[in-house]
Amino acid sequence: MRTEGDTWDITTSVGSTALFVAAARALAGRRPDPLAVDPFAEIFLRAAGAEWADLLDGKAPDQPLLAPGFGEVFQTFLEARTKYFDDYCAAASAAGVRQVVILAAGLDARAYRLPWPDGTVVYELDQPSVLAFKQQTLAAHGDEPRAERREVPVDLREDWPKALRAKGFDVTAPTAWLVEGLLPYLPAVAVDQLFEHIILISAPGSRIAIEELDVVPEPTRAALAEQPELPLNGGADWVHLIYNEQRSDAAQWFGAHGWHTAGRTLPDYLAAVGRDIGSPTSDAPVLPTLVRLVTAIRP
């Protein structure tokens, strides 16, 4: 359960969800004609412990990500989400944006794997131990970032704009913000505060990409909560880590503040990129159908 001021590393609480997501990216990247490939996901998983390596090597048949129902749907969800944010970064670069901020960066390796233009600075905000695991793992593997990468070790419930500015963030330069896989772990009031902080330090020409999740229906939530709390399980653990609250609609919120917005549901986006998430056959696969992807640009 979440508590006020709780902390985590990469293998506990909210931090462990980054490994689960990385596992989905790694597995999805092995499928024929993947939408996105993240070669660093496997590096993180093998560094995290034998149980994650076993998942990659097919030695954990009881784990949800390898199940025909949930596993296939969740992998499709993650590869689509990865492509959406990758394409967003490419569009921001093409528009001349050279300042990127990844909130709750987790095991996001875009600073290492995307072809950033010269002069790009990527700021990564997350818990100190999460950022340390990423940097140490990739350094040990001999990997170098393809942009100037600046770590901002901070809890997003604290004064993160101050910490960001202390690392050299330029409030006068356009920024590309990434809010991927974050909002469900914040209470509704904290989401509004996050958005307010972003608009206050976003220069004209800034943009943001957001993944948001509708309230999870109670039958789905109950079904997930009843799953056994096994290692690598994305159900019983996850349902106790999120705040299942109605949040502000991101497109409406930024639109009301003068930003130009565009959004679509995940199933609509999947159809646009030639994928079908399929018909949910159990409560777990319902979750991706609750996802919306939103982009907003400040004129």
From TrEMBL:
It comes from the Bacteria. Keywords: Methyltransferase, S-adenosyl-L-methionine, Transferase. The keyword Membrane does not apply. It is an enzyme of class 2 (transferase). One of its GO terms (molecular function) is methyltransferase activity. GO terms for biological process: methylation. Its EC number is 2.1.1.-. Exhibits S-adenosyl-L-methionine-dependent methyltransferase activity. Belongs to the UPF0677 family. NCBIfam families: mthyl_TIGR00027 (TIGR00027). This is S-adenosyl-L-methionine-dependent methyltransferase.
